[in-house]
Predict the structure of Carbon-nitrogen hydrolase.
Amino acid sequence: MKKTIIACAVQQPCNRGRETNLAYSISQIAAAAKQNADLVVLPELHLDHYFCQSEDTACFDLAQPVPGPTCEVLAQVAADNKVMIVSTIFERRAPGLYHNTAVVFDKDGSIAGTFRKMHIPDDPGFYEKFYFTPGDLGFRPIETSIGKLGVLICWDQWYPEAARLMALAGAEVLIYPTAIGWDPSDAAEEQQRQRDAWVTVQRGHAVANGLPVISCNRIGFEPAPDQAQGIQFWGNSFIAGPQGEILTSADDKQDLLLFAELDVQRSEDVRRIWPFLRDRRIEVYQDLLRRYID
């Protein structure tokens, strides 16, 4: 990684139609580049409304190949602005085979690498198993001109194993494009517990691995197709340092760019005083490969 990088998380609504969403993302990338960003992270599936609120085969028409049309556009945007971009795209890999895929564009417009979402939820309002096949690329950091990026996607952010495997493979920052929100009918206390847990677990990944974390969520209410329910995406995007310290954060309504300077030496310094990787007892962790210890 460069000695320091300026990271930017774009917190934006994604419920205004594909052309408008993409145009807005592009305008935010250009604005971030003008403020000297090296890396711009967009929310999960930022091109479209969150279609996974229902199971509808017509939504497969939203998918596209990777590389494909959006990749061509974002590659040019990356090259024009000399900035790295992390985008997530509904990937059509083959007939009947689809993934939720992060694509990393380097500053010269090339595709540095991809990551396919590994953990796929299936909960009320989040019917992702209907649409996405679990990823098959493993937990491998993506080599870029600014360093090794440990890109994961949304539901992956709850799993310490995913973060740890990225760290063990040499990731220098953990990146989580996200689409997560509340059921508006939940009590305010429950909503706060959910949001606090989401922030806490990701800060824990930063602490446990001595790495900065970039978490980028969307905002805004998106109704379900029957209009009876919907999701209020809670924003609260943040960037944390390698001790879990919050470097910058947003609330649940702000449409904004979050910036933070990440110093690779800080990760080195933290790992020297908290040598968790050194003290791991790898010879006694075999049971982690079991579903449950009966």
In short: The mean pLDDT is 96.
